[in-house]
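Appendix B. Extra example for self-study. Work through it before the problem class; the solution is given directly after the inputs so you can check yourself.
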Amino acid sequence: MSSAGRFVTFEGIDGSGKSTQARLLAETLRAAGRDVVLTREPGGSPGAEEIRRLVLEGEPDRWSAETEILLFTAARRDHLERTIGPALGDGKVVICDRFADSTRVYQGVSRGDLRGLVDRLHDLMIGREPDLTILIDMDPATGLDRALGRGGQEERFEDFGPDLQRRMRAGFLALADEFPARFRVVDGNRGIEAVAADVRRIADRSLS
Ligand code: ADP
Ligand code: TYD
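Solution. Structure tokens for the complete assembly:
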């Protein structure tokens, strides 16, 4: 796969403002004349959107941790083959709401230490990291309130509760330490515009 374009991901706990900020960054870059593909995980291609329903709806114990890793990785592989890879090959900026770091954190640490398995499967089937990852860090209780406030059916992970959200936050911060070259951490406990201004500055520096 050619990687002439730029691959930007947003990460963070549920309700941290990733979708909002990904959309705002896409609008800003498009207004500046960049060709942008805004996408998300799980999903982002027709097949991966079908898998999204399987993993996000239903009871929290619907899948074993190992099966869940396979499903998220299958969705990612399809997304990469059909959406991300071709767009990067065409020189576009791809902005993705969650990517492999979410699997490292959610499946890697939520139910036992499965990070080794997540990494091995990633190396075998995905093998691509973002050029830039913006981690929106925020207070887990506020994040959960915001996420539950949205309503909807996709609450399998939110149903795991506040303690899990705290561990996920710590997991994302640990990943930012592990991959400092591509991670930038933004304080999400502020208004949408203040967060967006930080995101714009980071993207300007990284994408110019
Ligand atoms: P995520 O994609 O991380 O789950 P969203 O962007 O969907 O988060 O935001 C969750 C909810 O919180 C939405 O209703 C959104 O409008 C709201 N929201 C997003 N960012 C902020 C912010 N900085 N301050 C207050 N509310 C926000
Ligand atoms: P998302 O739609 O981004 O939820 P939110 O807007 O609440 O942040 O993602 C849905 C859920 O999927 C979220 O709780 C995290 C989970 N998830 C994983 O567990 N592993 C993964 O690899 C991905 C991409 C998401």
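Self-check: The first helix runs from residue 18 to 31. If your reasoning did not lead you there, revisit section 3.
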